[in-house]
Amino acid sequence: MAERPEDLNLPNAVITRIIKEALPDGVNVSKEARRAISQAASVFVLYATSCANNFAMKAKRKTLNAGDVMAAMEEMEFERFLQPLREALEAYKKGQKGKKEASEQKKKDKEKKSDAEESDKNKDEEEEEEEHMDEEPEVENEAEDEEVEN
Amino acid sequence: MAATLGPTQGAESDLDPSVVEDDPRGTDGEDENSQQTGATTAPQSRLAKLPLARIKALMKADPDVTLASQESVFIIAKATELFVEMIAKDALVYAQQGKRKTLQRKDLDNAIEAIDEFAFLEGTLD
């Protein structure tokens, strides 16, 4: 990616939706304000990532984990986010686990049925992968499991 | 699964209680979604409104970042949502002071200047 990090914008429609849902009915948002918020959100990601990565590096870990992000939020004075983030993380982890089981279950079913209908299970399998920053081999998946709840 | 547990622990409850603000209906139809993980239509991605692939791309821009767990990408996505909500609401206060119903760029600027948590944004926006 030869773009500046700041050029990576988050989808406008999603940003707009988040803004609208946060504000009372009848309030409008100018295009310039929306664009500024979107930019601010990108900067937030960059700053939070950098902050979280410092924690990972301090702990001599190569993999940034959820705990690092939580620590970053505190560091950035966004303690108010911690509780909702913890809850969301719980739900996410459960969902991930459920998907893994569902994916394995589907495999079994497929073997039984010998039907080609379950092509979407490939999508589930992709989701098992870690978000690799480099093209690291699959073995890094194990790292995710151990790093999980620091 | 029991849905009778207390709200905050999320122990054995369904996915929903802790993520009430997310709208789990259908795909977003976000054509900008370059979902390498194919997470767009799975219910799991409904927990985060922002596309994880885009978040991950941003994180990758940091040369010091080697690897990031899926969870960390998700949490940053979620935190960013909360951030957007927060800054929009804080900016609104200034619009209201100006007796306006439309949030403008200057309201953002005012909020950034006034609120400590937004100090990191100073000088970063076009």
Strand content of chain B: under 5%
Overall pLDDT of chain A: 82
Question: What structural category do the secondary elements of chain A indicate?
Answer: mainly alpha
Largest sheet of chain B: none
Distance between the termini of chain A: 31 Å
Count the E strands of chain A.
3
Helix content of chain A: 55-70%
Shape of chain B: elongated
Explained architecture:
The complex is a heterodimer of chains A (150) and B (126). Chain A has 150 residues and is mainly alpha-helical. Chain A contains six helices and three strands; from the N terminus they run αβαβαααβα. In chain B, 37% of the residues lie in helices and 3% in strands. Chain B has helices spanning 52-60, 70-97, 105-114; strands at 67-68, 102-103. In chain B, helix 1 (52-60) packs across helix 2 and helix 2 packs across helix 3 (105-114). Mean pLDDT of chain B is 77; it is low at 2-41. At the A-B interface, helix 1, strand 1, helix 2, strand 2 and helix 3 of A face helix 1, strand 1, helix 2, strand 2 and helix 3 of B.
In short:
The complex is a heterodimer of chains A (150) and B (126). Chain A is mainly alpha-helical.
Which SSEs are present, and which pair or pack?
The complex is a heterodimer of chains A (150) and B (126).
Chain A: H1 12-22, E1 28-29, H2 31-58, E2 63-64, H3 66-75, H4 82-113, H5 121-127, E3 131-132, H6 140-147
Helix pairs in contact in A: 1-2, 2-3, 3-4
Chain B: H1 52-60, E1 67-68, H2 70-97, E2 102-103, H3 105-114
Organism (chain A): Coilia grayii (Gray's grenadier anchovy)
Pfam family, one (chain A): CBFD_NFYB_HMF
GO molecular function (chain A): DNA binding
